[in-house]
What does this fold into?
Amino acid sequence: MLRLRTAQSFRQNAASNLKIRLNSIRLASVAAQYYPNEPTKPELVTETIPGPKSQQLNEELGRKFDNRATYFVADYVNSLGNYISDADGNKLLDVYCQISSIALGYNNPALIKAAKSDEMTYALIDRPALACFPSTDYKEILDEGILAAAPPGMDRVWTSLSGSDANETAYKAAFMYQHAKLRGSMDFTGDELTSVMDNKAPGASQMSILSFEKGFHGRLFGSLSTTRSKAIHKLDIPAFPWPQAPFPKLKYPLEEFEEENHLEEKRCLEEFEAIIEKDHHTPPHGIAAIIVEPVQAEGGDNHATSFFFQGLRDITLKHDILMIVDEVQTGVGASGKLWAHEHWNLTTPPDMVTFSKKFQAAGFYYSNPDLQPKQAYRQFNTWCGDPSKAIIAKTIYKEIVKHDLVNKTAEVGDYLFQNLKQLAAKYPLNFRNLRGENFGTFIAWDCNDVGARNETLLKCRAKGVNIGGCGDIAIRLRPTLTFEKKHADILVQVLEDVAKEV
Amino acid sequence: MLRLRTAQSFRQNAASNLKIRLNSIRLASVAAQYYPNEPTKPELVTETIPGPKSQQLNEELGRKFDNRATYFVADYVNSLGNYISDADGNKLLDVYCQISSIALGYNNPALIKAAKSDEMTYALIDRPALACFPSTDYKEILDEGILAAAPPGMDRVWTSLSGSDANETAYKAAFMYQHAKLRGSMDFTGDELTSVMDNKAPGASQMSILSFEKGFHGRLFGSLSTTRSKAIHKLDIPAFPWPQAPFPKLKYPLEEFEEENHLEEKRCLEEFEAIIEKDHHTPPHGIAAIIVEPVQAEGGDNHATSFFFQGLRDITLKHDILMIVDEVQTGVGASGKLWAHEHWNLTTPPDMVTFSKKFQAAGFYYSNPDLQPKQAYRQFNTWCGDPSKAIIAKTIYKEIVKHDLVNKTAEVGDYLFQNLKQLAAKYPLNFRNLRGENFGTFIAWDCNDVGARNETLLKCRAKGVNIGGCGDIAIRLRPTLTFEKKHADILVQVLEDVAKEV
It folds into this structure.
């Protein structure tokens, strides 16, 4: 038959075959395209991690810089894709990724190209005070990156430098918005103008930001006042007298505890509204905004359902309180949607959504133009963001779209979750409260106690998987968006090997 | 004679001539070496600045990003050395430099090389969580840059992301230090561990940071509580009930008011100590630290003498209060010393010195190892700085040393000051309270009123000089470290032309 084909049909078939092959490569492995030399499994060369070189370098660094939280000293030159290399030459499958930050994998070729571009060079060496002297291309950089990635219903952004900074600038926007509403068309009073210089009311606000038990929103003074994850984060630092509300404690597996969990979420919503109605809804002592994470990550990967979040949205709207969703850790694809709060299908979008980590660029999205204060120089600082990070974010977002990485992450997440479910059935004490189903690779579980959790983390590392904990007894997975089934298989195998030992 | 020379002596002479020529080029103009094509004077192509392209781009950007503080949209590709280009092609002599931030000039060749280096690429695309997974080269990057530049008596650094962030992490270090001292060898109490989760004492500190009237230390919640420059920066934002002390209001010319100024500084020191003794020295309500700028820049370029700063140091030592010097705007050479507080010749160095702007890299220096909290994860966050900015800082510092830019800035500053003094004699109402003598190019003066100040700024821009104000009626100079006599001559000429009109 082949010999009877016309040249044209042959060429068509070849092209079609090639297309199928390319598609199947694309479907099969974006990681293989990006990283043809990615290790196929962890490669261990020292008996312990950190090895001797890591330890020596870290000791030297420690004389100048507080590095007592160091896992190991990393060799980024020899890291690739989903594998991080350490100073000793060990190559570990990384499912922690700089605390949930590496979006595409180490030494991604598209990011190399962006880093070497002239656009990046100018952004780095002529760093602008963005709100005073924006560059001719800043709008385009935002349009093609950070703004193209904006959550549904949001078309504006205020850029900043970190998750804490993003949250605090969002808080400032909330306070200024609420006071502008109270003030109406009036000007600042003389009393406001003088009292504020002495840090006193009425010029200084007595309103508050409400956050949730176990929430984490950063470590600067305003954000730390809303952080409720661990005492060690907060001890000895002055804090604003702002309220906290309970966050649901769900029981797992969800299908078994549907009714109980629903009641728990109802209870939390009722307490939330009671707090608002009791102490915090009388000017000048009202709640300007609430801030909530789609998953309380640092606090232990605590999930809640759409019912709870829709309830928060309804109650905030009812009481004219703004709703800030903190997507610093959940944002940019890992949940199987670009923004985790898209899972909720809210009837009204949140007022602000903050981001950082996977984009490097940080800030908050919003749509209501009144969240931009009426006067200039109120939401303002020298940098107002960083174009070099906005270029990184743009590049990451374009790669995500090009390679359909959010859907791929949803798929591999489902695969991984089913495998972990089987492990949990086999080792129930090692994999308690497995959570994150249908939530991409944003998966976590509890260990039996803090000792078992820490032992598990260390043993995983010794077997070549870099993995992180959260809360008191949880393990959280935070792989890249190019984490695939082949990586999941290795992870699951290591987790099973460790489960046998712990 | 030439023909009688041996080849060797000819070569020696040629080499020697070349050396002399190179030295004289070096002495004459680092700017000419860096920027052979730097404009020789402002080049204006539109009738007004911002011109039509700037206005259009800015209007488009403004739909997505709060840019109402924009002077003009800048074209960084066509900016060079001390000249900033705008979107319309105007080239302005820049003595504002991204609010005191551009150290070497636009598109500096050494920075281009650093930006294009592999070191920079890895830093950008594999951005580490520095306290958990530092890179193998982070110590070296710090050693050769940020730490090599450390002020006298300081050998440690905590890196952060902005001036506000630098100050707030320094405050956190101060609070943790003071409470550790109070606590002695005891552990955290149960009461501390629970109360802090509710933002209450005793877990949350009731201590404070004292700052000075007209001081500026940033715009996040903790730093803003110490900022006392303008009401518009602070209105409607919650603030901690922290104290402020008076900052001397010196009269000029200094030589005329020596005794009066001395009394004013004595008065401020006495009031400062009275505040400490009255309300703020009884645990748990003490002052953890004071923060002070060598020159209150944002607040109006207010100077004080070494007598005042030595007095602050003595009083803080006497009362066990830490002294933080905020060199975010004054640091990195512009004052004619690398760190402006070196002008004071303090008998004991400050406890912490914060930096950002000209280095891009931000953070605080310190030497006392007890300023590193005993427990890990207290001074901590995801990024803990940014190696890409540390590489920029390293490159800038090496260039400063190589070209002796601090001493050169001291020289050109003296030249500029003498010229401005002559202008002030001619136009006394336009150049009131000229200040910054023997302080590099960190020079400022007052206009007659706010209207005259703003008119002067606009007219300077229209004549091709980008210049900034501060305080209510002041104009501040913040040129690069490659600003030379030839640039100073242009600046002085434009200032005189404008003075004739205002």
About this structure: The two ends of chain A are 62 Å apart (CA to CA). The first helix of chain A runs from residue 7 to 28. The CA atoms of residues 412 and 434 of chain A lie 16 Å apart. Residues 32-108+404-501 of chain A form a domain with the Aspartate Aminotransferase, domain 1 fold (CATH 3.90.1150.10).
